[in-house]
Amino acid sequence: MKRLNRWQSMLFIAGAVLMVIGAATSLLRWDAAPWLFAVGALAYTSMQMQQSYEGRNITVRRLRRIMLFSDFLLLLTAALMFISRWPQLGGLDWLTYVNYVHNNWVVTLLIAAILQLYTTYRIDKELG
Question: What is d(CA 123, CA 35) in angstroms, rounded to the nearest whole number?
Answer without folding.
Answer: 30
